[in-house]
Amino acid sequence: ASCVQHRLMVWDASSLQLLQHYTCLDQIQYIEWSSDSLFILCALYKRGIVQVWSLEQPAWHCRIDEGSAGLVASCWSPDGRHILNTTEFHLRITVWSLCTKSVSYIKYPKACQQGVVFTKDGRYMAVAERRDCKDFISIFVCSNWQLLRHFDTETQDLSGIEWAPNGCVLAAWDTCLEYKVLLYSLDGRLLSSFRAYEWPLGVKSISWSPSSQFLAIGSFDEKVRILNHVTWKKITELDHPATISSKTTIVYKEVEKSPTVDTERLSFPPTRELASSLFSTQSKYDISQVPVSLQYVKPVADRANPKVGVGMLAFSADNCFLATKNDTIPNAVWVWDIRKLKLSVVLEQLCTIQCFQWDPCQPRLAVCTGTSRVYLWSPAGCVVVQVPGEGDFQIVSLSWHSSGDSMVLMSKDNFCVCYLEREEV
């Protein structure tokens, strides 16, 4: 699905055929599919309205108006039949049922980085709350929205919460001014508390492994610390130095080259194909000899949210690899082998890393850097894919299809779909 101003278009993912076209009341700020792909919600934050459309019955539609309370966030529940709206100033979360048209309210939600999370199986929801200048977490049963547990947290200013994929452990982390990661069980018991150091800036990002065995914590000190699920103790620290000296690490460096044009084919005015080839540059990967010095950008110390620390990290679907990005080395992606707890590969790009995401089915990493190229890494090697077409298509984000056969590449104003051929075993 894609939206332009107040129009919503639904496309077939395999053929890109336009299936449905809907018109909303105002400009669409956010869209989200239901879990069964039968409904799609469009949030119109300026008007405080959510419009819901049905794929099976195009004539059916639903409109939810929050009125004077306003609207700052909207999302589906895991069952795809309830919508959770967060009002302005985070006064409450309103749960709307599409089946019974009933309404439930959750008070005191906290305005934080990640305050509402669901377990992977969709059975439970955790909500970060702020009452009387103190942080709390409430756990609800999604089938009837009944409160299961409510407990306070040992945090000064709770920054976010995240369920383990198995739904047994909830991780909560404190503000960046206080390094603290807390691990709670489903019944609200504190299983463990982790603090790497005391005074400097603390946690910047976290990521669970798909097996729930590891919790990776990216910190402002440019390190990743990995906790295990048995003792919740640190098993290793992963450094991100500006110089790669290990001979067991492969460094792929992106290099640009101008295409060679046959002078006998030159004509005036040049054909469209010839003109595009004349002014386009191609890139490829070269393997650099260690030691390799990566481009290091010194952070500006007197500004808020400094570009320092590990701001992006993600595990591969098979739990074997971890991809990270150190914000002071913005052009590099680090790929760690979790089985050996060693750095395996570094991808050094020409431009700043905008986004990376793992294939949901196999260890294959897609990277974009704000150019018209997408980069793919797997244990077999690296490849650069040029997006065909006229004009400058700058890829700022990407998203894999659940099958791993294709992915959506998005620029500021357009999108395209990249299809990958699956090798037959």
From TrEMBL:
One of its GO terms (cellular component) is MWP complex. It comes from the Eukaryota. Gene3D superfamilies: YVTN repeat-like/Quinoprotein amine dehydrogenase (2.130.10.10). Coiled coil: none annotated. InterPro entries: Centrosome-WD_assoc, Quino_amine_DH_bsu, WD40/YVTN_repeat-like_dom_sf, WD40_rpt. PANTHER family: WD REPEAT PROTEIN 8-RELATED, WD REPEAT-CONTAINING PROTEIN WRAP73. This is WRP73 protein. The gene is Wrap73.
